[in-house]
Predict the 3D structure of the following.
Amino acid sequence: MKALIYDGEQQLGYREVASAEARENEVLIRVEAVGICGSDMHAYLGHDNRRPAPLILGHEAAGTIVGGAQDGRRVTVNPLVTCQTCPACESGRQNLCKTRQIISMPPREGAFAQYLTMPDRNLVTVPDGVSIAKAALTEPLAVSWHAARLVLNALHPQSEHRALVIGGGAIGLAAALALKAMDFEDVTIIEPNPARRAFLVDTCQQKAVADTNEGFNVVIDAVGYASTRAKASELAEPGGAIAHVGLGEDTGGIDVRRLTLQEITFIGTYTYTDQDFRDTAQAIFDGRLDELDWFETRSLAEGAEAFQDLKSGRVSAPKIILDPWA
Amino acid sequence: MKALIYDGEQQLGYREVASAEARENEVLIRVEAVGICGSDMHAYLGHDNRRPAPLILGHEAAGTIVGGAQDGRRVTVNPLVTCQTCPACESGRQNLCKTRQIISMPPREGAFAQYLTMPDRNLVTVPDGVSIAKAALTEPLAVSWHAARLVLNALHPQSEHRALVIGGGAIGLAAALALKAMDFEDVTIIEPNPARRAFLVDTCQQKAVADTNEGFNVVIDAVGYASTRAKASELAEPGGAIAHVGLGEDTGGIDVRRLTLQEITFIGTYTYTDQDFRDTAQAIFDGRLDELDWFETRSLAEGAEAFQDLKSGRVSAPKIILDPWA
């Protein structure tokens, strides 16, 4: 099969590799759409020692089951493979499973390839009328859905409903959409890149600004740098909550003095539970996350160029989806 | 009246000052017991620019109303004076009132004095049979009660019940007592000072250790330094929660990478709500916070020496209570 291989820092090779085969108790999926995530970019830049070269990256996949009893079933893929038996899994927090695996991290290859093998329980059926490309957005949307759910759970019931999302990439935009799907209407996105900001306003009908000094009782940091955490610390209202998604930088930025004196909660969030993934897929299928027409599609063969364009800030769309069969 | 005046860095003078008088809509209290808090020590060392000299410190007070219709009523004092009308106050989060005042911070003098004036709504009646010195512990116990309540609220319902408290001073010990009063039985306290640790074990019947590398799904940082936050970040179990009380250092120590990847919640906590204060007082009166015999009493005249002894680590009891009439 064709695959896009991460060969080392800023090196991606598109070439023929041995085809994926269904492992025991798993099914083979023909990958028809796979998104590029910020964490793929992080690995591509050589900043993620959990993803050593050579490796197939990519974990935002959708496609069609090939072979066996389910041949032809269109599915979107939850890339977290968990044990289903530990206390975390049994309490519905599969994202905290100590033996969790994610495709694109050893021992599992990723989805920047024509085929992928996955346990059946990780698959959600995509209804007719929903495109496979849109279905491939389930994974990043689920990350934000989970963060939005946690931060709203942490909120005092009598709090004002005003949210700030820092960062207008896919995770930030998805966080705004998730908050709105959860009846949190007043959402502002900070996005410093003018082209991205214009895209958010014009194509996605979001309230996006270059910066703000207003206060918000809900803040989602969808970037994860010291500077964005400093911003979150500054703008969270007394008694408010910050959800932190993603990992640009490992430390720094949190104003502990302000968090303490103003009683602000800072919530680390990681991926999603199985239920979050299913709920997000259903919200997509029901149209509760808007049109989801904010991605651009390229062929997997052009993947290396897509990474270069993303790195240079030349892409205004929040998401590039690669098609391994174009 | 006699008062202990903070005159500048490490300078405390015990002398005669103009007596406090009841302000409009307030009552005059004869202060009979007032505890020394870590924040008083912080101010004494010149580290709190919110408390400029000259100033009467002290905010953990109990005593007896003098004059007026309530003459002779024994009370413990909630030192937070709030507006009662803003959204924070109306939602029961008086600790977040934007115009909150606390005695010992301008414009209000503190309680290291023979008299104090307070609004009636800040007072809780102390029943016969409860000593005024024990009643003066309500304030620090309420700080920890509030932190324990918030961190237990943040906990996933199916979580294991194991808690770590970092720091075995009054706030740390009170946090352990509050957790136990909330049916959280397995509580370990880290206290590096051997004399304090022995006191916690022998006099307070607590599980206190010099250090640990075990994991806990609830951590209360009752110290608030970068090093204790680093410890909290390290030992919090995946999916767990950290409550942060007090402010030794303003920044540093939080391992954001771990908080994010292991989905740990970090809760800034500040003082208590009016309800927390009342609930804590009732728990003291009902004996649900144990014997509370872990303070030593000195006269207010000896206050300067008490601060010196605390600073030098010569005090094994978690709390010194000063008596302005001894």
Observations:
- The first strand of chain B starts at residue 2 and ends at 8.
- The CA atoms of residues 34 and 61 of chain B lie 4 Å apart.
- Chain B has a mean pLDDT of 96.
- Chain B is about 30% helix and 30% strand.
